[in-house]
Sequence to fold (339 residues):
Amino acid sequence: MTAARTPVDVAVGILIRPDGHLLLASRPAGKPYAGYWEFPGGKLEPGETVSHALKRELHEELGVDIGAVHPWVVRVFDYPHALVRLHFCRVFEWEGELHAKEQQSFGFFAMDALPAPLLPATIPVLRGLELPPVYGVSAAGVLGIDAFLRRLGESLARGLRLVQLREPGLSSAEVDRLFVEMRSMTQTAGARLLVNSRHPRALWEAADGVHLTSGALAALGERPALRWVGASVHDAKELARAGDLGVDFAVLGPVQSTASHPGQAPLGWTEFERLAVGTPLPVYAIGGLDGEALPRAMACGAHGVALLSGAWRAGQCFDRSGSVGGVSSACSAGPPGTT
Fold:
C-alpha cells in the first residue's frame, strides 16, 4: 500500500500591474519542470504564514519588497515529484527593481499573450484572473427599466465589465425587453452578461452564461455547459458545492444587513473571511456593500465585490485591473469600451 502524501504548502504571488499584466518567471535549471513559466513563490517554512513566506521568497528570488498580500484561491496539485497546496495571492504594490537572482527569465504578460510552456498548476487559475473586481447586479425593478438602462450605460462607460440580469419582480415580457437592451449594451462595451437562473434557460444561452441561485446550485447534477457560470452561496456547505460543481466563481453573503434580504442574518467580515480564505474558486462579497468596501473585501480573501445599488450610482469608476483602487468616486466617462 502506498502511503498518503502530505501536501507541501507553497505561497504563490500573482503580481498585477495597473494595466492588468501579470508577472511570470521561468523555473531555473536543475529544478523539476525547468524552463516552464509560473507565478513566483516558494515553500512555507515551519511556523511561517503565507504572507510572510511570499514576502521572503519574492525578495530572495526577484529582489522586490511587496506590499499588501491579498489571499485569493487555494489549489492542491499532485505532481509526480510532490503534492503541493498552492496558496495563490494577489499583489498590486511592490518596491525595488526586479532582477533574477536565480538566473531565471521573467516578465509581465497580458492575459492573451502568456509565455509557454506554463507550469501545469498555473493553468487552472488563469480563468479566474479574467474576472473583474466588481460584479454589477441589475436593479431595473427598483429604478425602472429606462432609468436602469441609463445607469447601466454610464457604468459600462466607466469600466464595469461584469453584469448579472436578475429581476424577479418583472414580468416575462419586461425581462425579455431588458435582456435585449442589456445584451446589446454589454457586447458594445466588451463586458460579460450573465443571466440569473430564475430566468429562462434560453436567456442564459444567449448571454455569456448563467448565475445560479443557491437552490439551482443544490439541484443541478453537473455544471451547465456554458462559458461562464457563477453561483450564490451563503455558507460553507454551499461554497463547497460550488467548488465541486466546477463553477467559475461564487458570490458569498450577505456580509452586512440588506433591504433585499431583511430576515437574513449577515455574515460579517470575520465569518466571510473564515469561509472565503482557502477556497479553490474566486469569491465575491455581497450584501450591503458599495465600491468603498473593495479593499476590505480583498483583504478578507474576496476576489471583489458584487453590487446592486452600488453599481449604478453616478460618478463611480471601475478599474478592471483588480487593484484595491478598483472603484473610485470620480472619473471622466467616455463611450463604452474606451475606459
User: Anything to note?
Assistant: Confidence is low (pLDDT under 50) at residues 332-339. The longest strand covers residues 70-78. The radius of gyration is 21 Å.
